[in-house]
Each structure stands twice: as structure tokens, then as C-alpha cells.
Amino acid sequence: MVLLGVQISCELTNLTNLSPSCDDFRWYLKVKCGNCGEDTHDYVYIDGLEKTPIQDSRGDANLVIRCKFCKRVSNADIIPGSILPYSLDDSGHFKTIAKFDCRGLEFTEFSPRSGWSASSVNSDAVFDDISLTDEVKQ
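^ UPF0587 protein, sequence as received from the core. Prediction below:
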């Protein structure tokens, strides 16, 4: 078992508690095979509410993927309770916002996309379905 985390760093202005807005948030990631090192060219997503049976196993996982090069099946699960908000105090620093139990794969890139929520520092307002797509620097 390998535990991998997704970390973000951003500057929050008048906002706090940036986090996925719902349980079925899709974590878009690029994946590298732990066996042969082949990278996925496109993003795959992990949804905390979706479970897929693992081939030749009695278990299931949030992501089950077969390497196109070596054909090995790998999987990843979101660790329950590991999704944390990014607060105003974290602003400008890297923080792990989610952890994954990965078997036979590793993550190489994260794309935040849409589906985030944040709270106003100055009022009780909550902003839902925030898109971070335009703010990604790579």
C-alpha cells in the first residue's frame, strides 16, 4: 500500500475553506504505471462515490485502471476522512487536501477544474461550483 496525497498552494483573498463542494467531486489526475512507468496522456478521474470491482480480487476501488503498455491492473481509493479544506491560514503554503491508497500506480499531475466551494471571510456567504481551471499554472 502506498499513500499519496494531493497538495495545493494558492493565495486566498477574502475567502477561506476552499474544498470540494460535494461527495461526488471528481479528482482529475494523470497516472503513471508503477510497473513499466507508462504515463496516461489524458486525465482520469477518481470519484469518491464510485466503486469498481478489482479484477481477480474480492475488493473494489474508486479507480481501477489497466496500463495500455504492460496491461497490469492498478487501483486507487480515496482514504475516508482525508479530504481537508484549504483555509486562509494555509494561503501561500502547500497543504495536503486529500489522500489516496494507491496500488501499482502513482499520480504525476492534478487538474483542479470545477466543483469547489469556499466561504467568505467577511460574511456567512458560501460560494459553490467555483472553477479553478483558468488559474492553473503549469
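DSSP finds no helices and twelve strands in the chain.
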